[in-house]
Amino acid sequence: MFDATAAPVARKLDYLPVSLFGAAMGLTGLSVAWRLARVRYSVPDVIADAIGALAVAAFLAMAVGYTIKWLTAAEVVKAEFQHPIAGNLFGTIFVSSLLLPIILAPASLLVARLLWGAGAIGMVIFAWMIISRWMSDRQQFAHATPAWIVPVIGLLDMPLAVPALQLESLRGVMVFGLAVGLFFTTPLFTLIFQRLLFEPPMPEALRPTLLILVAPFSVGYSSYVATTGHTDLFAQSLYILTLFMLSVLLGRLRNLPLCCPFRVSWWSVSFPLAASAIAALKFSAVSPGWATDSIAVVLLIFSTLVIGALLVRTVMGIARGELRALSA
């Protein structure tokens, strides 16, 4: 997606893509899904806790690694931020900061609140900068890829942790994130869908990002329910759209392991899958039945298997010294 070798100087960890924060997003979402499964199906606590620990470790590792990159190769970070596609993925830093407080709150409410506050402020500023960039400069149609939705997803993520943080007074902030996120989802989704229809296929490295198109609906459902406190017809519609888009895009990506070599960009499928499992588990809780429960269990197991495979392959790549090649 972004060629770090184009920068004037290549230094320590200059190849590390900001999109790898998506690993923390996916693991956090999976931990939240298993927490919901613990309540719904009485599964052991250890599963959600173990995945949550991995999510925190992944976030801290990326925070340290990307800080080193910023300190030793600032011009590469600047070029990555200014890139019309990769620049949007800086939102993964703030999305991770908005999601991790959900699993940190039981251990330390203060730390969770501080992290969420920093993530919320950063997300709003980042979204404002990206939207201002879109409106200020002429954009190329070929650059309209699913990565463009990441800033919108970040705004939709803002309400999710508020109930766990016991910050009921911030309902206005929840409404802000939900309203702005849903408003910009419509034109962006339309633009990206149009690009997929009428432009050449996306490069292989970007193909896994197609699954990001599920996230506005799955996260939108969870965000709407968290903000309004109930599941009405609109919430049900978002959930149905989640399942429909997921089935379409999984069909598009079914041959991905065979046609495309593994890259860290594959982590872009992790959070949409986890968010879909979360939406299914929440919906099964308010509308129990063999169909809704079956969908929830299948999505939870499938998400766990996929994210587990991504984690194993990434760790193997790091152990073999392949991270630079896998980040290309």
Helices and strands in order, then pairings?
Layout: H1 22-41, H2 45-72, H3 74-82, H4 91-104, H5 109-136, H6 150-157, H7 162-165, H8 171-198, H9 215-228, H10 233-252, H11 256-259, H12 270-286, H13 290-319, H14 323-326
* Shape descriptor: globular
Main pleated-sheet profile: none
Structural class: mainly alpha
**Strand element count:** 0
Q: CATH topology, which one?
A: Glycosyltransferase
End-to-end CA span: 7 Å
Number of domains: 1
Q: Roughly how many Å is the radius of gyration?
A: 19 Å
* CATH architecture call: Alpha/alpha barrel
* Uncertain stretches: 1-10
Helix percent band: 55-70%
Corresponding CATH superfamily: Voltage-dependent anion channel
Strand content: under 5%
Explain what this protein looks like in three dimensions.
The protein is mainly α and 328 residues long. It has a single domain, classed as Voltage-dependent anion channel (Glycosyltransferase, Alpha/alpha barrel), CATH 1.50.10. It is 70% helix and 0% strand. The longest helix has 30 residues. The radius of gyration is 19 Å and the shape is globular.
Overview features:
Glycosyltransferase, 0% strand, single chain, mainly alpha, 70% helix, 328 residues
Task: Summarize it.
The chain is built from 14 helices and no strands. It has 328 residues and is mostly helical.
